[in-house]
Input
Amino acid sequence: MWVPKLDPKLKELLKYGFAFGVLLMAFFGGSYILKGLLGTEYPMMVVVSQSMVPTLGVGDYIIVAQVLDAEQITAAAPPAGEIIVFLRPGSTDEYIVHRAIKRTSSNGGVSYVTKGDNNSFADGTPVPSENVIGKVVGHIPIIGYFSLFIKTVRGFGLVIGFMTLAFFIDYILPAKKPAVGRFPPLALLPLLVAPLATASLWFFSGDVSHFALDSISLGVWYFACLLIPLVFHDDDSGVMIWLYHLVLLMVPIACDMTWWNDHITPSMWWYQAGSTVPINWFLLRELPAFDTVFNSVLRSLLPGVMIFVVTLYAKRKTWEPFTSLHRRLRGAPPEAKEEAKPIVPTLPDAAPSSNDEPARENT
Output
């Protein structure tokens, strides 16, 4: 069977493009698997308002399980009452995530009085049991911002731009240089700061801790953008690790910083109402408030992108001190310099003396 021979660069591009496509499909397709496991139409949703802070943070993924019997829902004051997701009475597409604080019965049915933990008053209209989508059984801090960001036209375009830069970076930068030294595994430690800071939000709450952790993560990421090009010999692997870290962690962190700094929640990004939204591919029409969010994300992320690209370019061009730092980090000996050959001065030819002149014939 004849197999066409692909250009190595094109083959590599297709490989990483396929890997990223599989990642996105797993990211969104996982909700379809959870749909069967948890028995709900929307097993994963994202919190877009501050009504449940600090129990559920803005940008949190929430995992929603089916409620088979209304009697299974515990209705009580926090923290005993269960958090439920429901369609707002009278609406067909406005999903709310609030705590059930009281159960009532009327006309042979069951309804719930609900309230956001961060709200001063209970919701005005009791929620009929048939409006309940499910109950919250878990959450993942702030990573849901990624799904929200790419639901906007500009957010989706920015992520595609980062992907395009990563895939075509070999075509816009000088050629790679031969390998030196060995990869230092400890160089990956800066990349662990963002996921650890995000995971710590399960235990800490409040604007000070959120904003402080986000700021630390962003600062360490800038350092990682300088470090990654210098420690990886296989630039393609380094670029892909950097890209995944950027879009899946740093984009959500930059969005979270905007919420805590400018108090613009995703519920203000678009015309979609509700305190939570399902995970899907649909783009939503943006509100003017998203301008501030998008510009803030650009200011946060573009310096890191520039640091990464410039450092990679400088390493390939063998600029100092990048070349020396690259060799030092990978444990390679300093590049040998050619010894200067001694210059031996040459004496000018001596002028002929009178004794050396040929004898003249007598005429």
